[in-house]
Structure prediction request, 123 residues.
Amino acid sequence: MGFALAEAARDRGAQVTVVAGSTSVRAPHGVRIVTVSSAEEMRRAVAEEASQATIFIGAAAVSDYRAKVKSDTKIKKTDHEIELKLERTPDILGEFAQSRRNGQLVIGFAAETNDLLKHAHEN
Prediction:
């Protein structure tokens, strides 16, 4: 969806920058892409890039939670259960919306599985 919105903005004459995580979709031509691989990298890239934008569209989001401890190697199977602890990831769209400059338009999308309208109005 983010690339489709970027293409539509580009086709209307906008200079477009997309901050993108891992994707199998080909990036559109004529759009500047900033590639990131973690929620924290996305947070920093959005802070840097979006502060200069007239319009900011948050078309997708990182997961709300991430593993608290990251393993650099495969976790081997054992006979024991493993408890996975999660921590919240930053609310990039929320943070940016709070710090936007005067006149800047901020549009955000939220993925929900229930009570769609109620949750949309909360954010």
